[in-house]
Each structure stands twice: as C-alpha cells, then as structure tokens.
C-alpha cells in the first residue's frame, strides 16, 4: 500500500483521485466536530464548501441543524458554530448541514475519490485499523491546512495515523511527506510527554482559537483515539460506516 500526504487541500488534484482512498484531516476543528457529532448520535452531516451553498441546502432541508464557522467565528443565523463541544448534546438522531473555512472545502475537493474517510486525533486508531484491512493500494492523507498553509495539528494527526498503520500493516510505501509526519509525531509526542494540548496551543490555529476564547476546544481535540467512530463521506453526505 502506497501512503501519500497533502499538506493543504489546495495541493490536491481532484483528477488524480479516482482510484484512491482519501483520509481527510482537519483536527482544529472540522473533522473533530464531525466525529464528535456522530459519536453522540447525529445521523448524518451534509457539508457545503461555501456559505451560499450552505444557505441553499438549508432552504431545501429545513429539518437540518445549520452549523459552521468563518475564520473560527460563529455565523449569524446558524444554529451552532464549529466547536465539537456544541455537538455533544441535543444531537441524537439529528441531521446537520456544516460549512467551515477549510475542512468542508477539503471534502468538496476529494468528492471524486474512490472512498473518503474522516479522521482527527480523536479517532485515529479506528482509521488506522480500518486502513490496515483495506485492499486499496493507494491512500492519500489530505490535511486541510489553513488558508493554503501547512497546519501543525493536521500534520501531527497524519503522523499518528502513519505511525499506527506501520504497526498494523506490512509493505507500506511511504512518501517523503508521510515519512516526515511520522517522525514529527514520534518526536513531538515524546518532547511534549503526551501533553498534546500544549503542542496544539502553540500552533497558529491553537493561538487563533485561544484568542477567540476557545481553548477548551484545543484540549478536547488533542485527545488521541477516544472515539471508535469511522465516518465515511459519500455523495456529499457523511455517515458512520
Ligand atoms: C476549518 O474548516 O478551517 C476549521 O475547522 C476552522 C475552525 O473551526 O476554526
């Protein structure tokens, strides 16, 4: 199995994805929020890559909760923001329309892939276990990044995934970026002595969230493998596998 890595969604070429399994990561916070909502009983999440598409969807799907953010801030008229903490209660059997700055754009970019799995640090072990049983030979780990730039927390999560997969599966062919992510994960975990909230707090996204009074989100999203959830994205909809 070949494992490649994109640092940002802008690096991904949709025309090259037909045979690939894409693993989408936006640890702070879109994929963490999606995983948390599904863990707490949400039945499906429809994603939109722009506010206008989200609004159009909301007109058609009135029974859906409307959630998301722009540059971290909650949007007027939306029922919820993009904090995973907002998706732990009152979400059972609910359906959500979600728009976020980078995460939902990443999903739109990979919609032509053979399969798309949603990953964050919260469910990284479950994703590694699933990939270990996959017969597909080509995997692209798609970090969302932040407005075209590399994100530390996505890179760390990608490294956790590669590291766990190496334990579970033989004959992996890692790209240079996938290898670097693995080394980064092992080193950072050691240096931070498992206190990954401190690492994430030092990242650009961590600082931005802290400045918006959302440090609890960083703590929440820095926990490794606390959920067994395996969300898949098909035809614009995310559901638990
Ligand atoms: C994104 O999609 O860029 C993020 O999830 C941003 C955020 O939640 O603040």
Strand content: 15-25%
Order of helices and strands: EEHEHEEEHEHEHEHHHHEE
Question: What count of structural domains?
Answer: 1
The average pLDDT is 96
The distinct bound ligands, ions and cofactors come out as: D-malate
Q: In total, how many beta strands?
A: 11
Do you know the CATH architecture? Alpha-Beta Complex
Termini gap: 22 Å
**In order across it, which strands form the biggest sheet?**
5-4-6-3-11-10
CATH-defined topology: putative 2-phosphosulfolactate phosphatase
Structural class determined from secondary elements: alpha/beta
Number of helical segments with 4 or more residues: 9
Account of the 3D structure:
This protein is an alpha/beta fold and 241 residues long. It has a single domain, classed as putative 2-phosphosulfolactate phosphatase. It has nine helices and eleven strands. It has a six-stranded mixed beta sheet with strand order 5-4-6-3-11-10. Strands 7-2-8-1-9 form a five-stranded parallel beta sheet, sandwiched between helices. It binds D-malate.
Provide a compact summary of the structure.
The protein has 241 residues and is an alpha/beta fold. The chain is 38% helix and 20% strand.
Q: How are the SSEs ordered, and which strands pair?
A:
Elements: E1 2-6, E2 21-25, H1 30-39, E3 44-48, H2 51-60, E4 65-70, E5 73-74, E6 95-99, H3 103-109, E7 115-119, H4 124-133, E8 138-143, H5 152-168, E9 173-174, H6 176-191, H7 196-201, H8 204-211, H9 215-221, E10 231-234, E11 237-240
Parallel strand pairs: 1-8, 1-9, 2-7, 2-8, 3-6, 4-6
Antiparallel strand pairs: 3-11, 4-5, 10-11
Bound molecules: D-malate.
The site of D-malate has 11 residues, from loops.
């Amino acid at each position: 199995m070949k494992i490649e890595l994109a640092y940002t969604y802008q690096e991904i070429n949709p025309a090259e994805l037909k045979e690939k399994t894409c693993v989408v990561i936006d640890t702070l916070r879109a994929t963490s929020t999606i995983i948390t909502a599904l863990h707490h009983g949400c039945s499906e999440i429809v994603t939109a890559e722009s506010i206008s598409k989200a609004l159009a969807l909301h007109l058609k799907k009135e029974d859906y909760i409307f959630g998301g953010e722009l540059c971290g801030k909650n949007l007027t008229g939306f029922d919820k923001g993009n904090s995973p903490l907002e998706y732990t209660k009152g979400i059972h059997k609910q359906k959500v329309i979600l728009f976020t700055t980078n995460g939902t754009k990443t999903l739109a970019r990979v919609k032509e892939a053979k399969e798309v799995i949603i990953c964050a640090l919260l469910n990284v072990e479950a994703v590694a276990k699933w990939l270990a049983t996959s017969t597909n030979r080509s995997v692209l780990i798609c970090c969302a990044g932040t407005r075209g730039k590399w994100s530390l927390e996505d890179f760390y999560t990608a490294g956790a995934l590669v590291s766990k997969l190496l334990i579970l599966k033989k004959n992996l062919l890692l790209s240079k970026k996938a290898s670097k992510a693995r080394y980064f994960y092992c080193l950072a975990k050691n240096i931070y002595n498992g206190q990954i909230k401190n690492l994430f707090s030092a990242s650009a996204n961590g600082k931005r969230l802290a400045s918006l009074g959302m440090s609890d989100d960083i703590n929440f999203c820095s926990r490794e493998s606390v959920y067994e959830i395996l969300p898949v994205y098909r035809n614009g909809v995310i559901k638990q596998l």
